[in-house]
Design brief:
Layout (H helix, E strand, L loop, with lengths): L2 H32 L6 H27 L5 H4 L1 H32 L8 H26 L1
């Protein structure tokens, strides 16, 4: 992958992320000013932080590439890609453990919410998704 292509892709990611973040932030601001309650308006503010953090991470990546263009080699070197994949797998396992513990904690600390609360179902759904998604992706990639 060429340096120009990576820089262009990173700039597009920054632009789109900032655009989405600003749209969510402006929507929150309008709802607060108009005292219109679609849902909890703070949720829009919290959601605007996700693409904003993506833009910040992409900006740091772009600054790193501009500072040292040889960094791009790390994205194409097979050994470094394998190390990155291994780190990603360990992070996924850690997050699965945290999700499992939060699911068990929710179930045992607040047993009356089991099968009734939307929070319990969301926690269970995310846990199951995190467990089965890698298997589905492996199956899909083997077919192609």
């Amino acid at each position: 992958m060429s340096a120009e292509k990576i820089v262009k892709e990173t700039k597009v990611t920054i632009g789109v992320s900032l655009l989405v973040s600003m749209a969510l932030f402006i929507t929150w601001f309008i709802f607060e000013i108009a005292e219109f309650s679609f849902t909890n308006n703070k949720a829009l503010l919290a959601l605007s932080l996700i693409p904003f953090s993506t833009a910040i991470a992409s900006s740091l990546k772009l600054m790193k590439i501009k500072k040292n263009p040889k960094v791009i080699v790390s994205e194409t070197d097979e050994r470094l890609v394998a190390e990155k994949n291994e780190a990603d797998a360990k992070a996924l396992k850690l997050l699965q453990g945290v999700l499992f513990l939060s699911y068990l904690g929710y179930t045992f600390i607040i047993p009356e919410d089991t099968f009734k609360s939307i929070g319990w179902w969301i926690t269970l759904g995310i846990l199951l998704l995190s467990l089965f998604t890698p298997l589905m992706f492996r199956h899909i990639t083997k077919e192609t």
